[in-house]
Amino acid sequence: APGDPCILVIFGASGDLTKRLLVPSLYNLACDGLLPEQFAVVGIAKDGLTTEAFRSRMAADLRTFNTRKEFDPRAWDWLESRLHYTPGDFGDEEAYGRLKELVSRLDAERGTGGNLLFYMATLPSLFGLISEKLNGAGFKGFPGWQRMIVEKPFGSDLESARALNRELLAHWREDQIFRIDHYLGKETVQNILAFRFANELFEPLWNRRHIDHIQLTVSEAVGVEGRGGYYDRAGVLRDMIQNHMLQMLAYVCMEPPASFSADDIRDEKAKLLRAVRRYSPEVALSNAVRGQYGAGTRADGAACPAYRSEKEVDPGSNTETFAALRLFIDNWRWENVPIYLRSGKALWKRGTEVAVQFKRAPEVLFRGPTMRRMPSNRLIFHIQPDQGIESNFQAKVPGPVMQLQSVNMRFSYGESFRAERATGYEVMIYGCMTGDATLFSRTDLVEAAWQVAQPILDAWSGRPARDFPNYDAGSWGPVAANDLLERDGRRWYEVI
Length: 496
Ligand code: BG6
Description:
Layout: E1 6-11, H1 16-31, E2 39-45, H2 51-65, H3 73-80, E3 83-87, H4 93-110, E4 116-120, H5 127-136, E5 146-150, H6 158-171, E6 177-180, H7 187-197, E7 211-219, H8 228-234, H9 236-253, H10 262-275, H11 281-286, E8 288-291, E9 293-294, E10 296-297, E11 303-304, E12 322-327, E13 339-344, E14 351-358, E15 378-384, E16 388-396, E17 404-412, H12 413-416, H13 426-434, E18 440-441, H14 443-461, E19 471-472, H15 479-486
Parallel strand pairs: 1-2, 1-4, 2-3, 4-5, 5-6, 7-13, 9-19
Antiparallel strand pairs: 6-18, 7-14, 8-12, 10-11, 12-13, 14-15, 15-16, 16-17
Helix pairs in contact: 1-2, 1-3, 5-6, 6-14, 9-10, 9-14, 10-14
Residues 182, 220, 239 line the site of 6-O-phosphono-beta-D-glucopyranose (BG6).
């Protein structure tokens, strides 16, 4: 069913996010009949565009960023006629006056019932200002619901995250704030919950008695791609691990929720993140490895410059472009099961995977001089680019003697479902329109994740990384990341 009637107001509508993701997602939703008939979009940004110019710009950009094979002109015309634009500076009260006039007019024309969805496609430092000005201009007087979508980063450490949360909560109720973590929009990430809780097969084994350890890898082949200015202040721990990877970890390890409602799921995620062991900075140092890439050759043969020579990056930068962590979840289910996380830029291959390594079955029956050491079961969630789930088991090799070999069972999204390619934002925009906050983060979740990351950030920021750069672009990261597992008698699994 289509989402609730509403007007979507995009702050920062002339920016990258709008053309790359928001408009293509709205278009995909329109193609699938998931936008309400009573709907309009109002873009606002500094650029002095007219509505006409905004429409033709979005139409042109859609040709580049469209995710579907076939173009549906009816869906696009439908959406295009609902796109509007008003120029304005986010600090200027008059701009909000004009915005309100336009929104009121469209609300009456389109019959959207005063439901307003504000999308903050801007820097987080503007969220407070915009909220305050919206208030001042009397937007609260509209009769319907009001919600706001915010994009990361949600702070750059625990303290700034708390400050940002306070700022948001000064103007909005928690249930009005939708914090986007685009990993939660990925089908394969959402499927982790379906896999765990809609099947009887694995969940009884999902604990310290049967699982040896878990590995999460988000490997990127690209470097910082012109985002050096932002990235040099962030680093991979803030950019990928504190948010996307800890959210995935929560899905893999949380307890079954009381129901599938947004808050029941988020309660369990928060509980899980609160149980992740908080290291002292000293202990953090022996459980975390950081890396930065030097020049190298990528898998496709292209030369990749060293991180420190990227645009807008400090030539003596201490920022980590790779990190590997060894975490523990101090709860009943996961006591002493190591959770290894790694992520980095300019690596050999792009691939996001979660590998759940089971303990070895008793070997009593299958040993002897002719037997190879028996491997143990592993379950792998392929998140991207390959999408699916795979597990191995031991089978008898044909022949007169008992020999074992590991074989695979594999589910592939592409083979089982015929779904159109999407941006991943569709499901989130739709969720927001219907008031379903399942795929969004929450104040306590954001802060719990920062509490995991903070001691590591503190340990690193106090100590310059003298060995940077310590891995070549196009490699698998620093050698020390391997040592982190080898000293536990384990190794990283290659991503497919
Ligand atoms: C973003 C990070 O949040 O996620 C980027 O800021 C990163 O640095 C991106 O490249 C990865 O997203 P995806 O969907 O390509 O895995």
